[in-house]
Hints:
This protein is an alpha+beta fold.
Amino acid sequence: MHAMQYEITLPADYDMGIIRDRVATRGHLMDAIPGLGIKAYLMRERGEDSPVNQYAPFYLWTAPEGMNSFLRGPGFQGIVHDFGRPEVQHWTGLSYEQGPAPAALPRSATRLRLPVPASAPPADAIDAALEESLRLAKSPGAVATALAVDPRHWELLHFTLWDHPAPQEPGDRYEVLHLSGPERERLGTGHRW
């Protein structure tokens, strides 16, 4: 499993209805993409629990080939054409868990990025993060949660989909405009560390 996200930060006066319309008319195009476990079409608006207007889709790929195919294909080229080429962040998947509401349509998402301290043994930090990911997966209203790591920068990423407004916990909170999950069942469950 591979996690991927790009963030398109938009001007403070940008009409976020444009993003809502974009997802409403194009979101379904990812509903059958090979290798895609989940794509959450995420957005946050300045002044509504966010310092910026941002479109920030989040992906869980079943294998890197799906991610690579998307990045060279027409969907991502549309992003590049309309907004410029964003930095694409990616992490190696460590775990994926369904929550108590796996069939619910997610309304929100949270993303928490944490550095692994240089003084901490990576295995210990990841084991603690896996325990936190399991805790999140059992939270009321959790649809699914994933944990990933960027070993180049030693950064951990917790990502959780919710069937209600995102809880007021540390990290970034997003509205989910659409969820594509053509190969969600291939993400499996449990940890890979």
